[in-house]
Amino acid sequence: MLSVSIKHPDSEKFIDAKMEQGKITGANVSVKMDDDFMRSVVDGTPYIQQYPVDARNPKYSKEVDASVLWDKIVHNAWKSAEPGILFWDTITRESVPDCYADLGYKTVSTNLVVKFRCVPMTAAV
Questions:
Q1: Smallest Cα–Cα separation from 54: which of 34, 76, 25, 78?
Q2: Angle at alpha carbon of residue 45, lines to 34 and 106, rounded to 5°
Q3: DSSP reduced 3-state for 119
Q4: How many domains does the chain divide into?
Q5: pLDDT tens across 31-89, in order?
Q6: Residue 40 contacts residue 93 (beta carbons within 8 Å)
Q7: 78 and 100 fall within a common domain
Q8: Which domain covers residue 50, as residue numbers?
């Protein structure tokens, strides 16, 4: 599975990746949605994307219309069954390894097929 944060400025291009047949094969694509993005969709407020996504002082940022981006995700999922959605803040809030994030055990990906979260320096069994 390939995934990107909705906060990344290139996420819209990623969301469209499976719309062109043959462009990406052999992998599912998913978007990591955060609570701020979903609030922006509900409230109709702008959302800030940035790179790096977790930086306090990003090198690049832009404002997007969250509702337009959400509508694109829904449309593409209807049309091509991709992208999947990962409610990332919920995943990390409920993840056992993330209580040890200060020690380096932080969720960085997940495998939806077997429902194991993958953390650095560990293996899904």
A1: 34
A2: 15
A3: coil
A4: 2
A5: 999 999 999 999 999 999 999 999 999 999 999 999 999 999 999 999 988 999 999 99
A6: no
A7: no
A8: 2-90
